[in-house]
Amino acid sequence: METVRSAWNDWCDDPNADMELYLAWARRHAEFVRPHVVVIFRDDQPECILVGRLENRRLQIKLGYAKLLRPKVRQLFFVRFGFLGNTSAENMELLVRSFKASLDNGEADLAEISRPRPMPQLDSAIASQFRTIRRDHFAAENEHRWLELPGTFDEFIDSLSRKDRHEFRRHEKKLKEQFPAAHIQCYRSEHELDSLTHAMEQISGKTYQRALGTGFVADDETLESLRITARQGGLRGCVLYMNDEPGAFFLARAYKHRLHGNYMGFDPKFSKYSPGLKVLMHAVEDCYDPEYPVRELDLGWGDRRYKRMICNRSCKDGVAHIYAPTAKAISLNFLCSAVRGLDVAARWAVENSRFLQRLKKAWLDRRALRSGESTDEEP
Asked: How far apart are the C-alpha atoms of 284 and 356, rounded to whole Å?
């Protein structure tokens, strides 16, 4: 890997594929077997890199929120935004042939490839190299939203709908009236990490995301990732304090020209003031700081209302699974595809039935009772 570090660092524009964060993940996880990094050379110079790893893991087969099975597999995992350099159709064909050979040789049961943006050249290469029986079916697609920043923050505010501008200003005024000492503290250095994570943990423990087993957790892996990010100069943490009590936070990572939102949460007792919206708007305004400029704010997967409110770009992306030519792998593909097919049908039914939507909301609210937070879509 060191032989291509220079090209890797030059081409990588997303922290998911950053070499230092990749190595930190490998040190922390027992399921890591070895790197699986494919490099295409032309005239003895690297032209394209595919960043991946070989791992032993339990594959989660889920129907909605329910975990049905967790079979043990050996997997080639290619990280999001892990296609670096020249991703021409010719190079995609070579990369697909490479991991096909690895699967055919028995190195892994399956390969997982993330497509953070549409990559028709990759899809075409996979379709030409693998028979239908080895490709997954009913793969979930996610809405991926991001904001391409206009010239100034005022232009961004003007780009919002009249209703959204009115709501933001109304909540901002209400918050100032009720909490005149409210302020936002920004954290950017490694020595501030303890204060930042303590404040975020105070809030995150009360959120419905925590009740569902997701959201921010200050574990060793997360803290090491934040320390590396801070050393690279990319830490962006914002906490809204309401009378010296943390009320909302937004945690992001600045990487080259893009700000990547990682976690966001708010204390449910302050929900009527929309503190999450306040801290998110501050994060957008912070993008215009001349010392730390970025051109995009990427809010990742999910189609929450606040993302639709501020983002002006979106696409469908997702994960593709390719299976080895073995009885175990093909059987696993049939099982996973069948469950995903049921999941797609169930989601369609929920989206087209008001009764089922209310039932889902009631179930989520019951799961979130321990946190005391509503599951409404207000940030």
From this structure: 36
* CA-to-CA separations, 338 to 63, 318, 379, in angstroms, rounded: 10, 18, 34
Give Cα 199 to chain centroid, integer Å: 22
Residue 21, judged by CB atoms within 10 A of its CB (0-12, 13-18, 19+), counts as: buried
Q: What six digits make up the tokens of 265?
A: 């949460």
CA separation for the pair 17, 5 (Å, rounded): 12
What are the backbone dihedrals phi and psi of residue 243, each rounded to the nearest 5 degrees, phi first?
55, 45
Q: Where are the alpha helices (DSSP H) in the chain?
A: 5-11, 19-28, 89-104, 120-129, 153-159, 162-178, 193-204, 208-211, 220-231, 275-286, 305-310, 327-351, 354-367
The C-alpha atoms of residue 358 and residue 353 are separated, in whole angstroms, by: 9
CA distance 370 to 356: 23
**pLDDT at residue 364 is higher than 90:** no
Q: In whole angstroms, give the CA distance from residue 167 to residue 160.
A: 11
- Length of the chain in residues, anyone? 379
Provide the residue type at 23 as one letter. Answer: L
Distances from the Cα of 340 to the Cα of 43, 82, 362, angstroms: 44, 25, 24
User: Which residue in this structure is represented by tokens 């399921």?
Assistant: 31
Tell me the longest C-alpha to C-alpha distance in the chain. Answer: 67
Give the chain's mean pLDDT. 88
pTM attached to this predicted model: 0.84
Concatenating the DSSP letter of every residue in 230-276 gives HHTT-EEEEEEEETTEEEEEEEEEEETTEEEEEEEEE-GGGGGG-HH
Q: Give 176-204 pLDDT, tens digit per residue.
A: 999 999 999 999 999 999 999 999 999 98
Amino acid at 232: Q
Report the b/e string of 266-301 with b at 16+ CB within 10 A: bbbebbebbbbbbbbbebbebbbeeeeebebbbbbe
Q: What is the DSSP letter of 332?
A: H
Whole-number Cα distances in Å, 256 to 50, 51, 259, 326: 19, 18, 8, 42
**Eight-class DSSP state of 135:** B
- For Cα atoms 110, 111, 114, give the angle at the middle one, nearest 5 degrees: 145
